[in-house]
Amino acid sequence: IYHNTMIYATVALAILATASALSFEGLAHPRAYYEEKFVDYMKEHSVRARDGQHFIEMLHAFSVNVDFINTHNAKAGETYKMKMNSFGHFTYAQWKQNMRLGLARPEPAHAAHTHSVNGTSTPAEIDWVTNGAVTPVKDQGQCGSCWSFSATGALEGAYQLKTSTLESFSEQNLVSCDGRRQEVRGTDMGCNGGLMDSAFKWVMDNGGLCTEADYPYTSGVTTENGDCMQSSCTKNTQVTPKSYTDVKESDDDMMSALAQQPVSVAIQADQPAFQFYSSGVMTGTCGDSLDHGVLAVGYGTYSDGNDYYKVKNSWGPSWGMDGYILLGRGSEFGKSGQCGILSGPPSYPSL
Q1: What are phi and psi of 13, to 5 degrees?
Q2: Alpha-carbon distance 12 to 52, whole Å?
Q3: Cα 219 from Cα 197, distance rounded (Å)
């Protein structure tokens, strides 16, 4: 009740805040239409306004986003849909800044091995989620630690295939301990970015990784790397890679790698479509300026006939298709693949 009272009090202040330079003209509906929806949105996502002016700024962003989503979904021939989510009160520019996507190029850690098609045929589709080799979707929060979530995802898949046990491994162990000043020297930079191959190398040098339960994730709330607390958790040595392998830049090679295990990939995710993607195969405009580490967990063909890669994101299960996105697959997306998925290069650990 208190929270509802606070929201309506803020609305009252916003109505009085006439000094705002933001204009609601040109939108598809009257301001009251968006205001009613935004109050419900604030309650659903626990969003609070600092004052009336802040309320108006968020309301304006929300209104523009509602129209953006509705316009996209009304277009004929689109292969994917959008929906409102917890990013609805951010402008596109604010969303990009807030996400801190987190793929960086600190020091290259190219794998000693390169995967290419070995002559065996690949299945028409594969889904490591339904095959039991993928942990539930996680949330990196406002920390640029996507690289650590991609790396643990690949390690979790390899570990399940090796031991028949699905175990969630600690991103915080990587964020806090895989750095340049730690006892086991690394090259990644915590909330300021990193690379999956570098993380695989660090786990090799470290002789394992702690579990999520033993070393839980905190950087998404604090947005800080945190001190390395590895001495207080027990490393699982069975998740230590013997090696890691980069995948050649082609759909055939990528599908061949995915047929054997989940694969870490890098994409360009700072696109408007990503802010509100909800379902279908994302075939929209997307570049290959890689800025986000994610996990490819399969491939197949959608009900509309579009081929795709299934990708696990780290923005929580309320985003996308329960935390996943389907990215277009095929020659029409160029050598780099949709959003650069083939160009990272993709990579995977061997345990």
Answers
A1: -65, -40
A2: 8
A3: 21
- Taking the C-alpha atoms of residue 228 and residue 210, their distance in angstroms, rounded to an integer, is 12
Q: In terms of DSSP H, where are the helices of the chain?
A: 2-16, 31-45, 52-74, 92-99, 146-163, 171-177, 196-206, 219-222, 251-258, 272-276
| CA nearest neighbour of 263 among 103, 168, 155 | 155
CA-CA-CA-CA dihedral for 47, 295, 238, 116, to nearest 10: -170
Distance CA 134, CA 313 (A): 12
Give the pair of three-digit tokens for residue 216: 């839980």
Helix, strand, coil percent content, the chain, rounded in steps of 5: 35, 15, 45
Cis peptide bond prior to 345, omega within 30° of 0: yes
Amino acid at 305: G
Beta bridge partners of 245: 113, 348
184-240 pLDDT, tens digit each: 778 898 998 999 999 999 999 999 999 999 999 999 888 889 899 988 999 999 999
Cα-Cα-Cα-Cα torsion 12, 24, 88, 329, nearest 10 degrees, comes to 170
**CB under 8 Å to 54, separation ≥6 — which residues?**
none
State the catalytic residues: 146, 292, 313
Least confident of 32-41, 117-126, 194-203, 295-304: 117-126
Res. 23: pLDDT tops 90: no
Integer Cα distance of 90 and 46 in angstroms: 14
Task: Please give the model's pTM, rounded to 2 decimal places.
Answer: 0.90
